[in-house]
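Newbie here. two chains, one complex. Structure please?
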Amino acid sequence: MRIYALPIVAGLVLGGVVHIVTTLTMPRLALEDAFSRLARLGPPNAVQMIPDPKPSEAVLPRMDPSFTSAVCVYDLTAGTLRVRVPTTTDYTSISFYTRHGLAYYALNDHAAGQRTIELQLMTAAQRAALPEDEEITAADRLIIESPTTEGVVLIRAFVRERGVREETRARLAKVSCASET
Amino acid sequence: MRVIIILIALAVGIISGLALTWVASASSFGFGAIRIGAWSAWPKSGTVEADPYSRAIFARAGELPLGLADGFSFVASSDDIGAPLDGRCDIHIEGRLPLARFWTLTIYDSRGRLIDNVGERWGYTSAEVLWEPDAHVDIVLAPRARSGNWVPTGGRDQIVAILRLYDAPVGVGSRSGDAIEMPAIRQEFCP
C-alpha cells in the first residue's frame, strides 16, 4: 500500500498546479464567453440592440429583465472609438469590459451629470500619441483607456414600469458608437 | 512498475485538478465569495481587481459582471439554513434591504434563464414591490398564485435569486458581512 502513497501525494500536488493553471486560463479559453455571444449580434464598432431577455432565449445568462440594453463590441486596431449616450429619463449606465470580461470602468447618469454622455475610448498607445494641446482642449471630453484592443461597451437603461419599455428602448437606440481614424 | 507509479501520479493530478476547477467555476459553490446569510457576493468582480475565481465563474457562465459603479449583485441559491432553493416550496424573502438608488430581485432557473409564466413576472424592482411598514419587504416565490409580492417559480426544483443594488453607496461591497442588512430567506410547505 505504501508504494501508492508517493504517487498519490505527487498527483495531488500536480492537481493543485492543474487547478491553478486552468482557473487562471478559463477567461481566455471559455468559448461561449460574453464577448463571443455579443459579437454574434452584429459587426464591431457599431451599436447593436440586445433583445430583451425572455425565458426561451437570452443573449447572456442572468440578464436583469428590468433593464433594456445595447452593446458596442469594439476593436481599436484601426482607431479610437467615440461613444455618445443620450441618457434616458431613468437610470442609465455605461460599463466597459475587456475582451476577457474584466469590468474596467463604469459610470451612470448621476455620475456623468449630463444629458448626453460623450466619451472617447482608446488604448494606452493611442492616448500617448494624442497631440498635447488636444489633450488640454479635450478637458471636457471624457477619455477612457482600454486595457485591451478589443472589448465591450454595455449600455443599460432601467425600465421602471412595463409601460415605458418601448420608449426607453427607442431612446437607447439613439446611442452611437463609431470608429475614428 | 515505475511507469505505473508515474501514470497514477499524472492521473490523480489531472483528474483532481480539473475536478476542483470545475467545482470552483460553478457559481453555486461560492468560491471566493463573501457570504451574508444565504447571499453570496463577489465584491471585486466588477473591478479590475476581480479575483481569478470570480473571473472563471463569469467566463464559464458567459455572463458579464456588473461594473461596481453601476451596481452590486448578491446571489442566493439556498436558504438561511443551507437547503437549496426549491421552486416547489413557498420561499419567503423577507426583511430590510441595503441602501441603494433602487434594487431589482430576479429569479432564474439553475441555468440562468428566466422562468416562463403568463404574467411575465420574473421578479420585483423597488419601484413595483409592495412595501410593508418600516421599509420591510416580503416577497414570496411559489408555484401557485399568492396575494402580495408573488413570483411564480413554475415548480422548478432548483432556482436562484439575484438581488441587484444599483448606484449603491461606495463601500457596500468592501465592508464585512455584518455591516450590511440582507433579507432572510426561508422555505416552507416543501413537497
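Moderator note: The longest helix of chain B spans residues 2-24. The mean pLDDT of chain B is 87. Thread marked as resolved.
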